Amino acid sequence: MKKIIILISLILSLSLFTACNKDKELEKYSDQFFDTFDTVVDVSVYTENEKEGQKQLELIKNEFERLNKLFDRYNKYDGINNFCNVNENAGLAPVKVSPEAYKLIKDTFTYNKELSNKVDISIGPVVDLWTKYRDLYNEGKTKEEVKALTGSYLPTEEALKALRPLLGMDKIVLNDEESSIYLKEKGMKMDIGAVAKGYATELVAQKAIKEGVKHCVISAGGNVRIIGDFPKNDSGKTAFAIGVRNPDVDENTNGMDSISEVLHLNDTSAVTSGDYQRYFDLDGIRYCHIIDPLTLKPAHDFKSVTIIAKDSGLCDFLSTACFLLPIEEGEKLLKEKNALGIWIDKDSKTYMMEGAQELTDRGQK
């Protein structure tokens, strides 16, 4: 089995096993599953009995698995047209996709136009090139071995420049009547890694709410979505405690040593983009998975950016955009969407927007 190293940037810290709500005891039921959206998904629900708890957990897992197939850009599935099919048909033909997949792309276009063009889903060819080098270095290859295999230690300016004709949101054609997507140039590839996981998490949450889930925390890698408030109990605890990972600790570090901030949240989302999630180090420089569409190179200014807002899909978009923008521009963007941000820069200094600190341990004292 292929070993996948997954770093979860937001760590769920839920220690309460029973709670009371309107004189009825609520119990916590949890599940963890893999192989959706290339991450580990942890889910906790609070219900009156095990039967209802397991039913809610199964609902959430099934919905993640369904959306993973619809949004997958690497694998095809019988009876489904997903982003893998769209990329394979670049320069050839439009591909009709599911309503969920089409709306994901449609909403991303809107965000790209109205909020920030730093999130560009046409960047797939560049992402794949950098991923090729990352995989080689993470397999243990030396610089000389990588150069022997690829011709260079890192993607060259010439190689990156050669990919520019394949980039541009204007080369992605959407047909609302057909719910189809067409990539104009052969060799184009959409990469929806900056938006898909958060968007899917929000869809799962909305489905769960519709089906009666009232108290739940979903942690899908760096995407946390909280449904409802923390159940009332005798401990005095009034909010869910969500840990923001310390980007400077070893990936195997757990517990409080792995956390830089603890957020106290209810009925909202918290999404983190970090340079420690998918990366390689070379000659003292870290090359992360977040690519700037202007330079076509990994971003270096921040170690992590955490966004707090209601909608997990919007948070995912904003966390990537703010990772690629100066803090001042990112803060202005977040204020427009009533979102809060926490930045940890390349020197490990933390900057919090006004209102964010109130949600941390420091603000709770």
* Average pLDDT reading: 92
Major beta-sheet overview: 9 strands, antiparallel
Fourth CATH level, the homologous superfamily of the largest domain = ApbE-like domains
**What's the CATH topology name of the largest domain?**
T-fold
Low-pLDDT stretches are 1-23
Shape: globular
Q: Which class of the largest domain in CATH terms?
A: Alpha Beta
Total number of β-strand segments?
Answer: 19
Quick summary:
Flavin transferase that catalyzes the transfer of the FMN moiety of FAD and its covalent binding to the hydroxyl group of a threonine residue in a target flavoprotein. It catalyses: L-threonyl-[protein] + FAD = FMN-L-threonyl-[protein] + AMP + H(+). By secondary structure, the protein is of the alpha+beta class.
Describe what you observe in this structure:
InterPro entries: ApbE, ApbE-like_sf. Keywords: Cell inner membrane, Cell membrane, FAD, Flavoprotein, Lipoprotein, Magnesium, Membrane, Metal-binding, Signal, Transferase. Pfam families: ApbE. With 365 residues, the protein is an alpha+beta fold. It has ten helices and 19 strands. The chain has two domains: 27-70 and 194-359, ApbE-like domains (T-fold); 83-183, T-fold. The protein has helices at 50-71, 83-88, 99-114, 124-138, 143-150, 157-163, 196-210, 312-324, 327-336, 361-364, and strands at residues 10-13, 18-21, 24-36, 39-47, 95-96, 172-175, 180-183, 216-220, 223-227, 240-245, 259-265, 269-274, 279-282, 285-288, 291-292, 297-298, 302-309, 340-345, 350-352. The protein has a nine-stranded antiparallel β-sheet with strand order 2-3-4-8-9-12-17-18-19, with helices on one face. It has a three-stranded antiparallel β-sheet with strand order 1-10-11, with no helix packed on it. It has a three-stranded antiparallel β-sheet with strand order 5-7-6.
